[in-house]
Design brief:
Elements: E1 3-4, H1 11-15, H2 17-36, H3 38-44, H4 54-77, E2 80-81, H5 82-101, H6 105-108, H7 110-127, H8 132-137, H9 145-172, H10 175-184, H11 186-196, H12 198-204, H13 209-212
Parallel strand pairs: 1-2
Helix pairs in contact: 2-4, 2-10, 4-5, 5-7, 7-9, 9-12
């Protein structure tokens, strides 16, 4: 099985950028709208009532959409983007537990688990002198050692921030607010954070050895 970095574009990624975005955001949008129209879906497809309430129906459809998205990514793009791949595994595990036990806590904690996993991995790598982000993104950026260290540190902290933020939102607000924030809040925050790293990336970018002689 082949997995690749989300920002390491393959030939297929470059030719289908909007398709790649749709495959990654599609399951989240289905989760949002399925929860919004959960009762409507149950009325038209009574078999869905076996899953439970609207959030469980949305979770079941989210799981199905995630699997379809990963399969489509493999077939069309030729690889599985690593973050959606890891997130998808957690979705299937925690989504199944949520539906089987009829406990919403599992699916609500999925973003916490995924972001904490990435954050701990990055910061843990730094503790052992490894800038793991460099191994993942080195085909997209050429940074010096200090640049990779700083970028890894920032992303590690950011992932932990997202984990804490998810806990705050789902524990203190309604299900509808949590799902809306998961779709419409987390993505803009991540985009803003990513753009904010560009000065660091530009400052620490180094030319490949083959280009310095030109």
């Amino acid at each position: 099985m082949t997995t690749e970095s989300d920002i390491t574009p393959s030939s297929a990624d470059r030719h289908h950028p909007m398709l790649k975005l749709a495959l990654e955001l599609g399951p989240l949008l289905i989760f949002f709208f399925a929860n919004l129209r959960g009762q409507w879906l149950v009325d038209r497809f009574p078999a869905l009532s076996e899953l439970g309430g609207p959030l469980f129906v949305a979770t079941g459809l989210f799981m199905a959409a995630t699997v379809i998205s990963l399969v489509a990514s493999k077939i069309i793009l030729g690889h599985l983007p690593i973050m959606p791949f890891v997130s998808g595994i957690v979705v299937l595990i925690f989504g199944s537990l949520s539906i089987y036990l009829q406990n919403e806590t599992f699916i609500k904690m999925k973003p916490t688990i995924v972001n904490a996993l990435f954050g701990v991995a990055l910061l843990g790598g730094l503790a052992f002198g490894k800038s793991l982000l460099g191994y993942v993104f080195n085909a997209a950026f050429q940074l010096d050692a200090e640049g990779w260290r700083k970028l890894t540190l920032r992303w590690g902290i950011f992932f932990l921030f997202l984990a804490v933020l998810n806990e705050v939102v789902w524990r203190n607000f309604s299900d509808d607010f949590w799902i809306a924030f998961k779709v419409w809040g987390t993505m803009p925050i991540t985009i803003i954070f990513t753009m904010a790293q560009m000065p660091l990336i530009l400052k620490h970018t180094v030319q490949p050895a083959g280009e310095t002689d030109k």
